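Sample 3 of the quickstart, ligand 2-deoxy-2-amino glucitol-6-phosphate:
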Amino acid sequence: MCGIIGYIGKGEAFPVLVSGLNKLEYRGYDSAGIAVNVDADADADANEDELNLQKYVGKLSEIKFEAVDGSIGIAHTRWASHGKVTKENAHPHLDCRNEIAVVHNGIIENYKELKERLIDKGHSFRSETDSETIAHLIEDFVSDGFSFDDAFVNALRMLEGCYTVLAVRKGENRIAGARKGSRSLCIGLSEGTEGPGLFPSSDVLAFLEWADKVIYLKSGDVFFADTDLNLKIYNLIEDRIVERPIDTVKCDAEEVKKGEYEHFMLKEISEQDETLLRALQQDKNTVTEICEEMRRAVGTFFIGCGSSYHACLAGSYLFSEIAKVHVNTALASEFENYEDFLTENTLVLAISQSGETADVLDAVNAAKRKGSRVVGMVNRDGSILTRDCDQLLMMNSGPEFCVLSTKTYTSQVVLMAMLAYAYAGRCEEGLEKIRSLYLDIYNLTSRTVREHVHELAEMLYKRKNIYLIGRGLQYTTALEAALKIKEVSYIHAEAFAGGELKHGSLALIEDGTPCIVFVSSNNRSKILSNAEEVKSRGGYIIGVSSEREEVFDFWVKVPDAGELNPIIQIIPMQVLAYELALLRGLDPDKPRNLAKCVTIT
Ligand code: AGP
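Result:
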């Protein structure tokens, strides 16, 4: 999954591209590049029109692009899917003549056969990527006499798969772009002081400081624009010129900055007292309608990936405990195994903070093909899932830049709890109980707790394995805590349901093995017995609990919130993961091999 930004207008492209890449780096950070159309008439240093291409391997903080004049440009930050992390595989990709530059996010499924055909026609490729094929296809049609616009459309028609693509051509006062399938593409519009401009991008965050209006393109949309901001949108599926509404960007440029925090991860962990309250800002009618849909449904599925799946699991326990209702859960990537059971009476609640996770979008499309109703629980306004669902709950967490989900995870659990209470007819009671956690969360993100957790991190950061156990709702917290630790510190962390240990995993325990135990008042004795099983085999017990217990070797105090424990017990674990990453000299915001939004299946 990658980040794309372009610019065309009366201003300079270079500053827009570089600042946009920095805002998109959460989408991938293996390598980055820019291509700027240098117009000889406008640039005294240029003897002739040229396409200035710069691309590098590494994170943006390690890259220094050279400033270049030009009012048309495209840029890309990459998360490698096809081809190793090399300069040749970095985008933008050029055609043979170095006249056409392309940036792409997605998968061209038939690129091998297209590439072979193009090589047979004499094209020479520089990279291992599927994306480079697009540049040569456009070149091929231009060589056959087609205009740049027509060549771009003809090339798109030959592609199978999903894509977001931007293209420019040397000497051409144009930028072309297109979107197909689960890859978002929007166009920022500005009349700003820097000169009016258009900002095609994967995400509004890339142009927040430049534009306050935005057009969200739909699958099949192709657009063309020039420096006079003449914008034409055409839909390949509908085969006609289309109009798309101009929205106002709903995001604050200030939220895009770290403020006084060293990393977005700590900033976003620390925001959770506020995001708890913001998650509760929901339209009561929507909540009521969703509960009605659940009552009418013959089978409800909560689906998601990663942390969002853990929120689904917590939701199923919450509905069981609060509403006395059974709800199915499924990993979105495994949902195809349930398709035979989906009917028009099924309800699917899809959780995705990005609203762009391909596994989730594929599962939602499968459900819609069967006539099932779909509720989305999403954080990113304007994302694909917000447009593909029948009912929508926005998490209101604000942008989350750290690859790890922290504030969005707790917001998801908050919304699950709120729905469960509403379903049980205890809405006001539930809202009060959830609101009452505000101060606990504020305290759990305090310096005092961080210093205490840092002591634990000092003991754990050289360990190869960390195990975590919990029962019921605490099991979902153990799963989420394990993911946090793995993602950001690269320490192997594995979560077990407390009762499962003796069925095999106990063999892993040896002298000093750290085991984090999540205790709740409603299953205290059982989980403490499981802790004793570990301790008696040499394990080092770290208790997350409201009370110190004899079996603990280290205690992290967290108030007991009963069924709402998943909202607060995870917070010191998020801090632990952060501290482990720092002690291991790692970047908590951009862990290796990962990206914030996984738009490939
Ligand atoms: C969680 O820390 C990870 N970033 C990852 O597991 C994430 O939760 C998953 O990719 C789902 O993302 P989504 O909520 O945007 O769909």
